[in-house]
Amino acid sequence: MSEPPRANRLGGMALANGLLVHGPKHWAAAVRDADGRVVVASGRKRLLRAGRLTDLPVARGLVRLGEAFAVLPAVRRGLPQARFAMEDRGSMGVALGATVVAAVARRRLRSILAQEAVGAVAGLAPALVTLRGSRAAVWHAVEHKSIAAYEAGGVDEIVNAEGHAKEHDRCGSNLILPLLVATTLGNTVARRLGRRAIGARAAIAGVSIGAAVEVFSFSARRPAHPVSRLVHGVGHAVQSGFVTREPGPGDMLVGRAAMEALLRAESASS
Question: Is the pTM of this model over 0.85?
Answer without folding.
Answer: no
